[in-house]
Design goal:
The complex is a heterodimer of chains A (458) and B (55). Helices cover 71% and strands 0% of the residues of chain A. With 458 residues, chain A is mostly helical. In chain A, helix 1 packs parallel to helix 3, helix 6 packs across helix 7 and helix 12 packs across helix 15. The longest helix of chain A is centred in the last third of the chain and has 36 residues. Chain A is globular. Chain B starts with a helix and ends with a helix. In chain B, 69% of the residues lie in helices and 0% in strands. With 55 residues, chain B is mainly alpha-helical. Classes of the chains: A mainly alpha (458), B mainly alpha (55). Chains A and B meet through helix 1, helix 2 and helix 6 of A and helix 1 and helix 2 of B.
């Protein structure tokens, strides 16, 4: 039944993509983040919907005049070098099947990220993209939050099966990343009812993060709240808001949740910490042995690679009991950290490029914010860049113990930063009227040229 | 309940996609998704009409 409902909607997006390729980017983002195709049954659930929409968008990028050139900045160069590095590490991978599988997925999402500055370079399109991200992840956040408040018995909130978010820790990180974007929309929206809806979404998503029982997500929430409080000009109101969430959470969360979070105090003696330390050490060993290429995507998940590079010191060698396995068998394990994941997968070269890419995106956001501050009508860019920085902070903190280095949203954020930078450059070059014109004049979309000044400034 | 929630989520996303990509945006979608600053300024004629009605 659900596929009969979803089918026409997807067809509508496909048709709209042929009229305006930006619809393809928005639809692709939706299929990537919310994965509605994994929430249905029937023939559509196994159809390559993402691929169809991606191909349609890429074809239209070639033919449309409504696209912008990506400015050749340092970020684009580093991004290109990172793609070269991950391709080299995949060619020389220790397990080719696992590596090409990872490469295939990451390249697709990087392509989506690169399309954003090309096709989404107007205020309305960027704002719509933020709406699509917030709605896609808010879908799980609100549902998870309500589930947590109603059930309250220790049932964990998890994402859709066969997706990146099926793991509770990954879902917690994704929800943490979406919270600042919901706040941006709340700050920007004029309608009271929509603002209240977004506030409800934020509170419910916060409970959704708590309901995942993820300690990384809990720390991410805490760091985000602290950072927002530090940066906010309305600290008292924010403190009251935080108390309004913390007190009900304290009263409603089950004892098992407090037991789980309590283990953070004695992390060094916890089995979960020891297994993570084991995985980090093995990933580091792979990087030391292969500093230029690493082991390729998901190298540590290959049991033989893990066993070899743990050099007989893995705790799994003594604790894991697999029928028929030789003595000292460790099995394969995820890296359990964005830092060690990239290090083990692509060596020190890839690790360096990855973090230069992320840090230069943060630096670009700061620069864009500084420029936008000078123009009162660009307050929305100031708020969006601030919220993106908070999302990045959550990613850096919660990512310490999660294998989410290649999460789609990170590359979408980089694309948004490039698009905002492109807008600022355009405004500096042509004045604000030019930006208003791209927004309001259909003729510009067709010809791709500037025309007489539009009536309505954005 | 689950199906209604799923359908609502999908419809909201589709509306946001349409609003973001349409050449001319419908006013009600602008009201729903648009930024407060995006509201079109009142034209001189509309302002005059409103003033006339008030008097």
């Amino acid at each position: 039944m659900r596929d009969l409902f979803l089918g026409p909607l997807l067809l509508a997006i496909l048709v709209q993509t042929f009229r305006a390729p930006s619809a393809g980017v928005l639809g692709w983002t939706w299929l990537t983040l919310m994965t509605p195709q994994k929430l249905i049954w029937g023939i559509l659930s196994s159809a390559p919907l993402n691929l169809i929409l991606a191909l349609a968008t890429l074809v239209m990028v070639v033919f449309t005049k409504d696209r912008k050139k990506i400015a050749s900045t340092g970020i684009v160069t580093v991004w290109f070098l990172f793609v070269v590095t991950i391709t080299a590490s995949t060619i020389f991978a220790l397990n080719h099947a696992l590596a090409w599988d990872g490469w295939n997925r990451v390249i697709k999402v990087m392509l989506l990220g690169l399309l954003i500055p090309m096709l989404m370079g107007t205020p309305r399109r960027i704002h719509a993209l933020i709406w699509v991200i917030a709605l896609s992840l808010g879908y799980f956040g609100v549902k998870g939050g309500i589930f947590t408040l109603i059930m309250g018995s220790g049932a964990h909130v998890i994402g859709p099966a066969d997706s990146q978010l099926v793991d509770n820790n990954n879902l917690a990180l994704a929800l943490c990343l979406s919270l600042p974007l919901m706040n941006y929309l709340r700050l920007q929206t004029g309608r009271h009812a929509v603002r209240m809806g977004l506030l409800f979404g934020m509170v419910a998503t916060t409970f959704g993060v708590l309901g995942t029982f993820s300690r990384g997500g809990f720390i991410g929430l805490g760091v985000m709240a602290g950072y927002l409080w530090w940066k906010s000009s309305r600290r008292f109101a924010l403190a009251i808001g935080t108390i309004a969430v913390v007190v009900p959470a304290y009263l409603l969360m089950p004892a098992s949740w407090f037991d789980r979070m309590g283990t953070l105090k004695e992390a060094s003696s916890q089995t979960t910490f020891l297994t993570r330390w084991d995985a980090w050490t093995t990933s580091f060993n792979i990087a030391v042995a292969r500093p230029l290429t690493g082991g390729g995507f998901n190298a540590s998940q290959d049991p033989f690679v893990y066993q070899h590079y743990s050099y007989g010191k893995s705790i799994y060698a003594t604790t894991l009991t697999t029928p028929g396995a030789p003595a000292g068998f460790t099995g394969g394990h995820a890296a359990h950290s964005i830092y060690f994941e990239v290090l083990g997968d692509h060596g020190f070269a890839g690790f360096g490029l990855y973090f230069i890419l992320l840090l230069s995106t943060l630096s670009l956001l700061l620069r864009v914010r500084k420029e936008a501050r000078k123009i009162p009508s660009l307050k929305w860019i100031v708020e969006l860049t601030s919220m993106l920085q908070v999302s990045f902070l959550a990613f850096f903190v919660s990512g310490i113990a999660l294998s989410m280095a290649y999460y789609d949203l990170v590359y979408i954020f980089i694309g948004i930063a490039l698009a905002l930078d492109g807008m600022i450059r355009e405004i500096k070059k042509n004045g604000q009227q030019a930006m208003a014109e791209t927004e309001s004049s259909p003729a510009v979309a067709k010809t791709g040229k500037w025309r007489a000044p539009a009536l309505h400034a954005t | 309940m689950n199906a209604i929630y799923f359908a609502t989520g999908c419809i909201l996303v589709i509306l946001a996609i349409y609003w973001g990509s349409a050449e001319s945006e419908p006013a009600w979608l602008r009201e729903l998704f648009g930024r407060a600053a995006e509201k079109k300024p009142e034209s001189a004629e509309a302002a005059a009409r409103k003033k006339q009605r008030r008097w």
